[in-house]
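2024-03-11 09:14:02 DEBUG pipeline.ingest accepted 1 chain
2024-03-11 09:14:02 DEBUG pipeline.ingest length=208
2024-03-11 09:14:03 DEBUG pipeline.predict start
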Amino acid sequence: CILPPKSCYNDPMKHALLALGLLLVGAALPAAAQKTAPAATKVQVDGITEATLDKLWIETDKYWHEGDYNRIVDLCRIVIEADPGDDEACGSAAYLLWSMGDTKAADWILEYGSKRAPRNKGVFFHEFGWHLYNTKRYKEALPYLQKAVAAGGVAITTYTTLAHSYEKTGDLKNSLKTWETIKQRYPEHIAWKPNMARVKAKLAAQGQ
């Protein structure tokens, strides 16, 4: 099953949505077909796929207001299959799974997304790192946040979360280095000054 552990549902509608997602993937992604199909055909398929995904996003808003979060996760999974670079769909599905108490499935979908992402690698790594940090798994969060920073294209929150993760795991020196990087990259931001002072005080208390 390509769905997260608790998402192999028995609901016929959900199976239908999954089937649609697989059809989209089959239509948009096979390399062999793309080598032989005329360019115009590929453009048409891409256009159909994009229009379908836009429709699915509209549907997620409807189900959000109805409180049908499992259905939203299913729709996000279709989007992820059709467009592996859609970090918003991946992050949204993971957040909803976590909020419904299925942390294992949230972990799975974020790892799945980060492995398949053809673009925005840094954003995907941030999503997983933030999720691990938010669930108090600071040591596990570190490698994903480090990879997010290395990949680039991320916001200040990736750096601040990395700095906090270092501090939470007792690595005060790297926490301080990260705050110094934040100071250099975002000198006008209010976060670095009090946090840097706190980490320096901790290091001083340890005689470092």
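2024-03-11 09:14:41 DEBUG pipeline.report The chain has a mean pLDDT of 81.
2024-03-11 09:14:41 DEBUG pipeline.predict end
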